[in-house]
Amino acid sequence: QQQQAPGWTPPPKPGLIPLHPLSFGTIIGSSFRVMRRNPAPTFGLSVLLYGFVTIVYVGLIGLLFTTALGRLGSASSSDQSDILAGSIGLIALSTLVPTSLALVAAAILQGIISLEVSRATLGEKLKTRGLWRLAKGRIGAMVVWALLLTAFIIVYVLISSIGIGVVFAAATATTSPSDGFAAVLGGFAVTLLIGLAFGVVAAWLGIKTSLVPSIVMLERLRLGASIRRSWQLTRGSFWRTLGAQLLIGVIIYAATYIISIPITLIGSVIIGLTNPTYDTDSTVLAFGIMYLVIGIITVVVGAIGLVMQSASLSLIYIDIRMRKEGLDLELLRYIEAKQRGTADAPNPYLRLQGEAPAPAQAGSPWA
Fold first, then answer.
1. How far is CA 29 from the centre of its chain?
2. Cα distances (angstroms) measured from residue 39 to each of 43, 119, 307
3. Closest to 96 (Cα-Cα) out of 63, 68, 56
4. Cα separations (Å) of 147 from 47, 69, 151, 155, 307?
5. What pLDDT sits at residue 286?
6. How far is the C-alpha of 121 from the C-alpha of 53, rounded, in Å?
7. Residue 360: pLDDT above 50?
8. Statement: residue 358 has pLDDT above 70
9. Is-contact 124 15, C-beta < 8 A?
10. What is the pLDDT of residues 180-221, one digit of tens each?
């Protein structure tokens, strides 16, 4: 009797994702599962980094704001306008410090998450110490990458500041109120157009270089080579990458407001019922506690969002290499070698670099 040919069976799913090109839904769903699968080195690290940046931001802005109020209170009426303008400019420039820290923290976290996703794809699970061991020698490149992004933001701030300065200079140089209003209106229109154009360019460059941390960590390339590699891989996958990031951003933004708005309303009602006379000290203390709770919730939700965004970029990186370079076959070979007990299975993420990687030595994280 003639036997029928066996039907096609999909590749196995040893870990986080199936070993074949991923759908958009799989990328989004797996981004949620990364944190649940290994919370300590993902969510724990994200909370620490995001919380540290938040504390620095709030502390720095609060210190400068308090100092500015003190100077305004002791200044004469003729000097108050100059002090106010200088304080606003100083506070605006001071935001570059926490912004730089936030970019460094996000770059480091994305690198660590990419390592976690790469091992989870193979069905492996490492603790925080193991992931940091894999990241050894790569953190410096992440910091340099974050500083480059900070320099890009500084250029934008300088251009915007110059545009606003030109606006006010043109407005004060005119004697007619109508001419001054027209100058201000035209200047703000030009500034807005510059901001929109800069935003479009920033979004385009951000997506084209969004895979740099994953490449630096997984392929162990230098930063310049990683940027070129990210540019090459994202060719033809721009909208897919942008869509995943926008969707996750909208989910996190909505979750933050869905949680914080009821807390604000309930807290305001409780404050009104327990303090009907609105005593100053009690009111300040109550609102301080309420906003502290909201701040903690914001840090937790923001940390979850960082993990999800980093995981989605790592999954997109793996998906693109599966589609363009057959990475899924390399991953299957690695898994089969490990199942046979092969002790020198090489890193599958390095196999496609045109190099001949040496077998993993004893004690190597890939051994």
1. 18
2. 5, 14, 10
3. 56
4. 22, 32, 6, 12, 21
5. 67
6. 30
7. no
8. no
9. yes
10. 566 667 667 777 777 788 878 888 888 898 899 999 998 888
Q: What is the pTM of this model?
A: 0.77
Cα angle 188-189-191, degrees, rounded to a multiple of 5: 60
Residue 17 has phi, psi (to 5 degrees) of -135, 160
Which residue reads 């006010």 in tokens? 168
Question: How crowded is residue 82: how many other Cβ atoms within 10 Å of its Cβ?
Answer: 10
Report yes or no: 263 and 293 within 8 Å, Cβ to Cβ. yes
- Find the length of the chain: 367
CA dihedral 267, 268, 272, 273 (to 10 degrees): -40
Q: Per the structure block, which two tokens stand in for 141?
A: 């490149």
> How many Å apart are CA 99 and CA 194, to the nearest integer?
21
Helical H runs in the chain? 24-37, 39, 45-74, 80-94, 96-121, 128-134, 139-173, 177-208, 212-218, 223-233, 238-274, 280-325, 327-339
Separation between Cα atoms, residue 303 and residue 333, nearest integer Å: 35
d(CA 360, CA 363): 8
